[in-house]
Amino acid sequence: MYNYxxxxxxxxxxxxxxxxxxxxxxxxxxxxxxxxxxxECYNILKRMELSHATIIxxxxxxxxxxxxxxxxxxxxxxxxxxxxSIILYSIRNYDLSNCTYLDADLxxxxxxxxxxxxxxxxxxxxxxxxxxxxxxxxxxxxxxxxQFVYFKNSPEGIAVxxxxxxxxxxxxxxxxxxxxFGDQKYLDVWTSKFTGIHVxxxxxxxxxxxxxxxxxxxxKIGQVWGRELSxxxxxxxxxxxxxGLKYAEKNSFTLSNYYTLNDNDIEFLYKPxxxxxxxxxxxxxxxxxxxxxxxxxxxxxxxxxxxxMFKLYALGKFREYYHKSYFLR
Length: 329
Hints:
By secondary structure, the chain is α/β, with parallel strands linked by helices.
């Protein structure tokens, strides 16, 4: 069995629940260790009694070293700081043979076991960004993405994990410096500094807004498939990283504020995710009407413009804003 871990607070609760439900749909046997970064998030998740999840509170997880640097980090930076620590905590406290970190805004379309099995027993798996040319950012943002990072409980794996944890405790900020950016840029040196590192080759592991321009998608045989435009290579989409997707008022979403998406991406990748987010929101509201399980951004002048209201509600889209009904049709 493969084990996974993730972290989020109540403002990412609907995304985190959608991640869990996607794994539940695609994987027969798995376990997800969820680190709830505030009490509201922890309490709701405990009430859900998710059969393939263990919920860990922030107070149970934090140690002296993390607490010492917490005041020096923003909320987001502290989450990044904790990434290697939650993996190490999961492996050590639950005696796991393996654990894969997942960003909370991932969504699975197929069983990720194929990604781990590709590594043929390697102790660590990292996923390249595979940037489209117009978004190339390897030099300052990092060649690899902290989105799906596998560790085996082996001397090789633990050595990398302990080094990463120490590095993030020493420095983990949302700014770019030579050789450093958050928790992510550290991964660039792993293949030269450590042994047992596998760089994921499967194109279906790590499809994201910064590389989706290289592919087109279709649905057949009960699976979402991608085709690399340059090589015509066909591959099953395993997961997509919904970086940049934001909730807006009037039950709406913005899909990306920087990267270019097309109708094909929206049809085969975004529609299933928005549907799952809608189900997750409903599930959360059934337990608590008060909890705020995601951010809500304003739509400029939406309350004073009948034209904008018509486009959003009747057509399902106004500029970069998509009403949820657009995805449920």
